[in-house]
Amino acid sequence: MEMSLARFVLLLGLAAPGPAPAGAAKMKVVEEPNTFGLNNPFLPQTSRLQPKRDPSPVSGPAHLFRLSGKCFGLVESTYKYEFCPFHNVTQHEQTFRWNAYSGILGIWHEWEINNNTFRGMWMRDGDSCQSRSRQSKVELTCGKSNRLSHVSEPSTCVYSLTFETPLVCHPHSLLVYPALPAALQQRWDQVEQDLADELITSQGYEKLLRAIFEDAGYLKTPEQSELAQQEGGTKGLVFETLESCSEAHKALSKEVKKLRSMLTQHGIPYVKPAETSSSENLGSKTPTARTAEHLQGDPGLRENTL
Ligand SMILES: *[C@@H]1O[C@H](CO)[C@@H](O)[C@H](O)[C@H]1NC(C)=O
Ligand SMILES: *[C@@H]1O[C@H](CO)[C@@H](O)[C@H](O)[C@H]1NC(C)=O
Fold first, then answer.
1. Is ligand 1 within 6 A of the CB of residue 123?
2. Which residues belong to any copy of the MRH domain (predicted)?
3. Ligand 1 pocket: which of 87, 89, 109 to mutate (most atoms <8 Å of CB)?
4. What is the three-state SS of 153-205?
5. Which ligand is nearest to the CA of 117?
6. Where does the pLDDT of residue 91 fall: very low under 50, low under 70, confident under 90, or very high at 90 and above?
7. CA distance linking residue 86 with residue 121, whole number of Å
8. 104 lines ligand 1 (CB under 6 A)
9. Closest-lying ligand 1 atom to the alpha carbon of residue 104
10. CA torsion, ordered 141, 144, 146, 152, to nearest 10 deg
């Protein structure tokens, strides 16, 4: 109902000839059109939100799982922020310009754990921001109702959100140990015992605890996090084993090499992505082995195309 009204008013706006201030005034009637910019059929495909990957699986204290699939909005000045626990954080410009800005400020990644307590939800791999991706940390605090209460940007493209919920008011509601499956609790018991017996250092203790949290899916391993960063654009690509990952990497490297040599062959200069640090990519300077090979087999091609 709200959605169709928003679309109808938007249609009016689009149909109005020229820059129509009257149309713009009319549109203000609609409050917080909750699909604006997201499922708006009038926006070109490129303006819709394109997540870089799927969210991590739901994890952590089981009593919070019921928040999954819900979304909570906060309108602050000209932006509406939306937090969908275990899914994403998005930002939507509150304007009726046809190309209103909408962006992903993070996709559910992992918990922040501190002093054996769940302190916040990290949403990473959002839309690009200079050479990095936008990310958001959502802190959960006790409140009367589920409510996104605060958004700020403490450093460039890192957002800090506060989510109030009655689900975290009990002092034990965010403890890690009770949330763990029994097998991991036993591992933790053993680690505590080893520390008490001075069989491990406090550094070793921290490491072993981290491994338990990673195995529980609360924290991501550095490799997993890196993968999430690198695999931007290949949504939903998950590797079951190290082997399948290595295979895919090999295949991709081969593909990249092939494409590079094609560019090189045809004397097309190309810009390398900022992350890779291979040597000069201007083909004429460093023809790859493959190019040389090809040139031997087909000496005429280069002359024809250059
Ligand atoms: C964000 O999460 C919500 C809730 O699961 C989902 O409906 C929506 O499509 C997601 N948005 C993006 C841009 O992924
Ligand atoms: C860590 O948690 C324990 C138990 O929840 C609490 O008693 C202690 O004060 C906390 N320490 C810090 C530094 O927050």
1. no
2. 69-171
3. 87
4. EEECCEEEEEEEEHHHCCCCCCECHHHCCHHHHHHHHHHHHHHHCCCCCHHHH
5. 2
6. very high
7. 8
8. yes
9. 13
10. -50
Q: Does the pLDDT value for residue 280 go beyond 50?
A: no
Ligand 1, atom 5: closest residue by C-alpha = 69
User: Which run of H or E residues covers position 244?
Assistant: helix 242-265
d(CA 41, CA 43) in angstroms, rounded, equals: 6
Write the DSSP assignment of 268-306 as a string of letters: ---PPPSS---S---TTTS--HHHHHHHHH-HHHHHHH-
| The pLDDT of residue 89 is above 90 | yes
CB neighbour class for 197 (10 Å; exposed up to 12, middle 13-18, buried from 19): exposed
pLDDT tens digits, 7-48? 444 444 444 444 434 333 333 333 334 444 444 545 543 457
Q: Which of 162, 219, 160, 216 is nearest to 188 (CA)?
A: 216
Question: pLDDT tens digits, residue range 181-229?
Answer: 999 999 999 999 999 999 999 999 999 999 999 999 999 998 887 756 5
The finding on whether 129 has its CB within 6 A of some atom of ligand 1 is: no
Report the pLDDT averaged over residues 44-67.
Answer: 85
d(CA 116, CA 97): 47
Q: What tokens were used for 169? A: 């008011």
